[in-house]
Design brief:
This protein has 2 domains: about 90 residues, Rossmann fold; about 110 residues, UDP N-Acetylglucosamine Acyltransferase, domain 1 (3 Solenoid), CATH 2.160.10. The protein is built from 3 helices and 25 strands. Helix content is about 15%, strand content about 30%. This is PglD N-terminal domain-containing protein. Belongs to the transferase hexapeptide repeat family. InterPro entries: AcTrfase_PglD-like, PglD_N, Trans_hexapeptide_repeat, Trimer_LpxA-like_sf.
Length: about 220
């Protein structure tokens, strides 16, 4: 039985995630939920205590669990390793109005915000973030530590590799079963971009149609 839940990240996104955690665990009291922040965010936020990670660990003999509300995927991975070493449970947080249809696999540590839709025959890796009003359509494969900002439209037969970041309102064109559209590892799709072809690893694409942002 979980005794304390921590939302790692006392930021704007963390403030949106905390009510989802409260909604998912209605039998816990408000004081059993805390924010975790290592940058000195203060002692209280929206009526919840803000603790350093070290102070969170000091709660003795308690079953603790954490969701990581931080968009930076590299930071998420680093924190995941810390939590695993300290034997802290990773939470999957899911808004009550999330739609999940048939044959959907989701790895540990996922965070699905309100109005997220995952249709059918989808495989998603660990520590996936889907912000509000995002969807993933049929036959998509999404790697680990992928981040969707609000309103991402991920259509069918798309493969998104680890640590990719998809910006607010981006639209990714549907691929085909024999030739899925691929977003490479660590790629960034800019806000409002319309992606009509595969994106190489590690690049940033912007615009409509999306093109690689050249470094000056």
């Amino acid at each position: 039985m979980i005794s304390y839940i921590g939302v790692y990240g006392a930021s704007g996104f963390g403030k949106e995630v905390m009510p989802l955690a409260r909604q998912q665990y209605p039998t816990l009291e408000k004081q059993q939920f805390v924010f975790i922040d290592d940058s000195g965010a203060g002692t209280s936020l929206n009526g919840y205590q803000v603790l350093s990670y070290e102070d969170f660990l000091k709660y003795p003999d308690q079953k603790k669990a954490v969701t990581i509300a931080i968009a930076n995927s590299q930071v998420r991975e680093k924190l995941m390793k810390r939590l695993t070493e300290d034997q802290i449970q990773h939470l999957n947080i899911q808004a009550s109005n999330t739609v999940i249809l048939d044959e959907v696999q989701i790895g540990e540590g996922s965070l699905l915000c309100p109005f997220t839709c995952l249709t059918s025959n989808i495989k998603i890796g660990k520590f996936f973030h889907a912000n509000i009003y995002s969807y993933v359509a049929h036959d998509c494969v999404i790697g680990d530590y992928v981040t969707f900002a609000p309103g991402v439209k991920c259509n069918g037969n798309i493969h998104i590799h680890d640590h990719a970041y998809i910006g607010t309102g981006a639209v990714i064109k549907q691929g085909t079963p024999d030739q899925p559209l691929v977003i490479g590892k660590g790629a960034v799709v800019g806000m409002g971009a319309v992606v009509t072809k595969s994106v190489p690893p590690g690049v940033t694409v912007i615009g409509n149609p999306a093109r690689i942002l050249e470094k000056k």
